Automatic annotation (TrEMBL):
The chain holds residues 523 to 801 of 801 of the full protein. This is Bifunctional diguanylate cyclase/phosphodiesterase. Residues 24-274 form the EAL domain.
Amino acid sequence: RAKAAGRGTYRFFEPEMDTRLQERRLLERDLRQALAEGQLEVHYQPLVECNSEALLGFEALVRWRHPERGQVPPSEFIPVAEESGLIIQLGEWVMRTACREAAKWPGDQRIAINLSPVQFRHADLAHKILTIVEQTGLAPERLELEITEGVLIEDTEHTLATLSLLKSAGIRVSLDDFGTGYSSLSYLQRFPFDKIKIDRSFVWEMGRNADSMAIVRSVIALGRSLRITVIAEGVETPEQLALLQSEQCDQVQGFLLGRPVPARDLTQLMTDAETAAAE
Ligand code: C2E
Ligand code: MG
Ligand code: MG
Ligand code: MG
């Protein structure tokens, strides 16, 4: 850019940085609008019992169809939402929408909802969640909150207090993307998680890489001895499912068992599951 010319090395780096910043700013502006205009949607992906393949619940995953760009993946807009603070509003919207939806289901399937570390910076997160649970009439025992290690890196005391409060109300807490962070094991010691979600990178490699298989096997054993439910994410093939069944993993999630679907497709899914269970 002309403005930067003559400022030595900056000239080489600025245009690229500038484009990225600009891109983020545009995305932030559009996301703000999306929240205001209801362009966001929640999709639901089945959580399934590993051996019986019985339907246990669903994970809520936010979706954004941008009017010009089409579907923008969460991996692109969640970071923007986190940096801009919009995640507070977005997270609350997902929580309210998913709890309201789950409260209408005929069965008592679980609803799992992702929380961003940024949401924990606000003092009233627990109060907000408890209020939504109460207002939507969802039994708190049906709610599972998914957090990643990032949550526990920040203000640990406050985070643990928040999680404990939610747990004492009957809400369950899962450690998401297990194995991808720096100190997953120490987190298991610091907080009584109800569930460990083995990251899909391990599941993906399982059949071809002996080390990944060993890791998956160890995490399943770890869960068993700590009495924590273990779920494997990203199960895509019958071979992966068979391996996890032979290792007696508790639960599975992945495209093989079901892709994330909009709320309007859930009734059919749940009816099919009931029919299958009755057979
Ligand atoms: P996550 O919580 O680990 O969610 C699982 C991701 O894996 C989802 O991606 C899901 O669509 C994808 N997935 C499920 N099964 C398979 C499979 O068999 N193969 C493959 N390749 N992928 C599979 P998605 O929906 O793109 O979300 C990505 C991440 O964005 C989530 O990872 C979560 O960290 C975040 N996210 C999504 N929705 C929300 C939300 O409402 N709030 C917050 N804070 N984060 C969210
Ligand atoms: Mg998750
Ligand atoms: Mg995950
Ligand atoms: Mg993930």
